[in-house]
Design a protein that fits this description.
Elements (H helix, E strand, L loop, with lengths): L14 E4 L2 E8 L2 E12 L2 E5 L6 H10 L2 E5 L9 H7 L4 E4 L4 H4 L7 E2 L9 E5 L8 E7 L2 E5 L5 E2 L5 H9 L10 H6 L4 H12 L4 E5 L2 E2 L6 H12 L5
Parallel strand pairs: 4-5, 5-6, 6-7, 10-12, 11-13
Antiparallel strand pairs: 1-2, 2-3, 3-4, 8-9, 9-10
The structure holds fe (ii) ion.
């Protein structure tokens, strides 16, 4: 049976990223890499990407923005708090990528897989090419422009300490946007297809921001960042 007690791990305050978009970054147990939750304010409720249990003051701020309506569990490895959200907000619609469904459903019911989701006023989800149906990208289109929200396939982790931090830095998996070595092993099945899709996404009109699965959002030349990641995955032939 799932543990539905509202377990709050240390996290930062709710931070506004753009119009209708908010973010909370918080700790993971026994890991230096942090997780993040993205909140999109729709006209008729909140869309939460990778929800995490927040302290009551932050939950009160969140609920001032709206009621949780759609909740995205972006992979089978991001299911940590979904049973707690199911318990606290029974009316939510839970969305997940098809490949993650079985693992997520060991703790909480999934209502729709990505291809069954018609989108909302400001958001839609597409699978990321080259990773099968393991992960998608949330495409948020608001008044200011388009934000792309990824999961583990794209990270932008700051450098961090310890032995792991030194290894990440040495292999180039921290300090810049990248598809990490671990993601290439665990998620990516076709690097060229992924690179092609990242280049296509870089051409998105009105692109203002890329939000990686873990790490710092990119609003300074997000298209250029996606092209650089694609070029490292699949170097252009001269
Ligand atoms: Fe992750």
């Amino acid at each position: 049976m799932s543990d539905t007690s509202w377990r709050v791990l240390p996290h930062d305050p709710l931070e506004q990223l753009g119009d209708r978009l908010y973010r909370v970054e918080g700790d993971l147990p026994n890991l230096k890499i942090r997780r993040q939750m993205i909140v999109l304010v729709e006209d008729d409720g909140l869309l939460l990407h990778n929800p995490m249990c927040l302290d009551e003051a932050t939950m009160a701020r969140l609920l001032e923005l709206g009621q949780p309506t759609w909740v995205i569990v972006p992979s089978g490895f991001h299911r940590m708090d979904i049973a707690r959200y199911r318990e606290r907000f029974p009316g939510i619609t839970v969305l997940a990528p098809r490949a993650g469904r079985a693992r997520i459903e060991k703790v909480a019911r999934v209502d729709l897989v990505y291809e069954e989701f018609d989108g909302t006023s400001h958001a839609r989800i597409e699978y990321v090419a080259g990773v099968g149906d393991r992960e998608g990208v949330l495409v948020v289109d608001t008044e200011e422009g388009v934000t792309l929200v990824f999961n583990d396939v794209l990270m932008n982790i700051p450098h961090f300490g310890g032995v792991m931090g030194r290894i990440y830095r040495w292999i180039g998996d921290s300090g810049r946007p990248t598809v990490t070595r671990l993601a290439r092993l665990a998620i990516v099945r076709d690097r060229r297809a992924l690179a092609r899709h990242l280049r296509t996404l870089a051409d998105t009109p009105r692109l203002v921001r890329v939000v990686p699965g873990h790490g710092t959002p990119i609003s300074d030349d997000p298209a250029g960042a996606l092209r650089q990641v694609a070029d490292r995955l699949d170097p252009p032939r001269t």
